[in-house]
Amino acid sequence: MNPKAKYTQRIKSEAKRLGFLSCGISKAEFLEQEAPRLEKWLNQNMHGEMRYMENHFDKRLDPTKLVDDSKSVISLLLNYFPSEQQKDPEAPKLSKYAYGTDYHFVIKDKLKQLLQFIQEEIGEVHGRAFVDSAPVLDKAWAAKSGLGWIGKNSNLLTQQVGSFYFIAELIIDLDLEYDTPVTDHCGTCTACIDACPTQAIVEPYVVDGSKCISYFTIELKEEIPNSYKNQFDNWMFGCDVCQDVCPWNRFSKPHNEPLFNPKPELLEMSKKDWEEITQEVFSKVFQKSAVKRTKFSGLQRNIDFLYGS
Asked: pTM, whole model, 2 decimals?
C-alpha cells in the first residue's frame, strides 16, 4: 500500500474511533463552483444582518489562504440526533442540535485529538481545526469529499443517515487520497420547500437566510419584525422543520455522544415553565449550551414573540 493510501486509511479509522459518523477527504483548492453562488447570495442580501458573511470572501473559497501550503481538507460528520425530544407538545421548541453541550467544544476537542494522532503517527504535519466558527464553507467541502449532497433545503443530506449531524474540518499540509462527490438524491421531492413556515427556501437549493426562523431567533439582535407573527410554528431557538420533513431523515439514528444529551429538566419543561423562565433557570439548563448565544434576554424576546400580543 502506498503511503498516501496508508495515511488516509489510518486517519479514517481514527476518526471513526473518535466517534465521527463519517470522514471524507478532498484536495485543498479554490472552490470554483461555489464562488459565483456565494457572491450572488451576498449581493441579494440573503445573509441579512449576518455581516460577518461578507468578510474573508477569498478565505471562504480557498483553504490555502487559511493554512499555509495546505494539501487536504478532511471533512467530518458528527451525529446529534437525540433519542428523546421535548415532552410538552405545546411548549416552545428548541432545535435538536442545541439540546446538549455546545457542539463547538465537543467537536474541537475531537479534532485536536485527531490532529495529534496524525502528528504522532505520520510526523510533522501542520493544520488547523474548524468548527463552523471560521470562514470555511463546511457543506461545500463535505459534499466535495463525498459525504453527501447539498439538498434543496441547502443542508448536506446522506442516504444512510439523513442530515442531523454537525460538519467540521481539519485542513492539513499532507497529501492524501481524495474522495469523489456523490449524486443528488432529492429527485422531484419538494417537502422542505412546501413545509418551511416562513418560505425561506426561495427556490430549490437556495435559502434566504434573512427569512429563516433560525436567523430570527439566533442571529438577529434587534426586534423580530411583526410581519412574521404567527409564522414561527412555535420555534423559540433555531428551527428543524426542513429537516424533520425530509424523507432521508427517517434513517436518522440516535447519537451516542453523552455530551449531547440534554439536562433532563430541559425536556420536561412545559409551555408555562418556558413562559416563566428566570435567569437562574436559564443559566442552569443551558450551562454549556449553544443557546447561551442568544443570552437570557434573547430567548425571552423569542418566547414573547411567540405568545405575546
From this structure: 0.94
